[in-house]
Structure prediction request, 291 residues.
Amino acid sequence: MTESSEYRAAYRLERPETRVGSVIVASPHSGRHYPWSFIRRTVLDERAIRSSEDAFVDMLVAEAPALGAPLLAAEYPRAFVDLNRSNDELDPAVIEGVRRSAVNPRISSGLGVIPRVVAGGRVIYRGKLSRAEAEERIEKVWQPYHSCLEGLVRESLEECGESVLLDFHSMPHEALDAMSRGPGQVRPDVVLGDRFGASAAVAIVDRLEAGFAAAGLVVSRNSPFAGAYIAQNYGRPSRGRHAVQIEIDRSLYMNEQLIRPNGNFQSVKKLVTGVLRQMIRGEDALPMAAE
Prediction:
């Protein structure tokens, strides 16, 4: 069976009945359609291959359309194609016929647009993929998602004079360990990445931080995640294009080992919905704190 025979829509777009404001909500790493030919080629088991997936993030932000903002969610997982990478970040260690170029830390670590590894540096494949197969994934998955996202941004600019992209992700709890080891350092529950002010106006990030902090969460800016390709590409504050990468600690809402929502999932979803309500509608109702 070829990859082509298995391709489905690259994304799910849910539009509000009535658009309210300039906010766009996106979840590029929560896709969970793993083509059979991909599963057959990986050396990893089901749980390991899903370790780099932002599992259930699309469910956390599911109320965005009801609040008045479009929701764009990926269908394919990050292990298949990473939508938060440039389409030219090709890794010669996993794709045949790719020349080594200037040092790129993401590619060097196996996290190019076609990832070589998942969380913990675990290798995905035996051998390499053909250049044609890699390019087909980009054509069938990466390009449609970004064409849709760019269209939503332009739509917001035309209708509202600006666009505010809230790009939701999740982070492994263990990735935050180093941040809580130094004196006076507190482990963050949420990390807001605006590329140190380059991808969004300070006032927008301030509002996001205030919303999460009011719910009782510890918020960090740009450390350890400052924002990757999506924030860099879609964030141009001087042109009215704002983009913030939002990372939420997975342990707050899911069992990371079993990849299942935990008992606190609904309260975290309500919390996120409250923050979205403030960002989309400007309402100040406080979200429920996570337990």
The longest strand covers residues 163-171. Residues 285-291 have pLDDT under 50 and may be disordered.
